[in-house]
Amino acid sequence: MSEVIDGTSGVFDGAALERPCGGDEPLRLMAVHAHPDDESSKGAATMARYVADGVEVLVVTCTGGERGDILNPAMDRPEVKADIGKVREAEMARAREILGVGQRWLGFVDSGFPEGDPLPPLPEGCFALEPLETATEPLVRAVREFRPHVMLTYDEKGGYPHPDHVKCHEVSVEAFEAAGDPERYPGTGDPWQPLKLYYHMTFSKERILALHSAMEKAGLESPYGDWLKRFEEEGDARAKWEVTTRVPCADHFETRDQALLAHATQIDPNGFWFVVPLDVQREAWPTEDYHLARSLVDTELPEDDLFAGIREKVCL
User: Fold this and answer.
1) What's the pLDDT tens digit per position in 215-227?
2) According to the annotation, is 35 in a ligand binding site?
3) Cα 35 to the chain's mean position, in Å?
4) Which of this chain's residues are annotated to bind Zn(2+) (predicted)?
């Protein structure tokens, strides 16, 4: 395939492909997420798999999740609500320990999820209202410090239309395209050009349908009936990116679930996330899925490795 797909790739002078062989530098993966808990619901088993393989993994969390609702009844208590920012910070610390990843806060304020007709204005000073360069600057700094070969983020609709997820997409693409350009974002470190950018495809219709069918085949009640109805109702309103890359990671589904449970304010242990038994999941859909949105290395699609084309081309 060509070196650039789905749009412009940013400045790239080939230096990343010309390192001398024989070094001990590990592969590096950066996953950029909007809130604490997003890293555990999207791509967590992938990250755990790569950590086990010796890849260095860094989660970048754009906001503190301060405006997130408490979705676990057991945690819906006054003292938790009164200190929700600190609580979510502690939950994130536990989740990153379970996944074995590093983690970095960008320090922006959660925008909340606006509801109503018409939608209310977003709160002043929130992440979604930050100018693009202001919101991107700390991510460029993180990219230049960590030097990832691969970045993960959301599609242009955020995976779902939370304003922080949409903003996360915008700053991730901007950072991917700017971090290698020495003229852009001065003062944030030496230039570094990541080689591949992927969008999460965690909740594709094909995966949801496969899990739904597997539950029915096993004689179990599927939790996905309403989801499938929404897929039909939304039609073309949903982003429809091709799945280019399926990463086998079923052996790490249990680690993913433990990381999810660490976010106790957001995840009800008796809730939706844990209805489908792990053995059913492993049989029906043993991968986590991605769309390759940018590539500066040649790779053949479909892929089963986020580092396809990088392992072969870069001497590490």
Assistant:
1) 999 999 999 998 8
2) yes
3) 10
4) 35, 38, 165
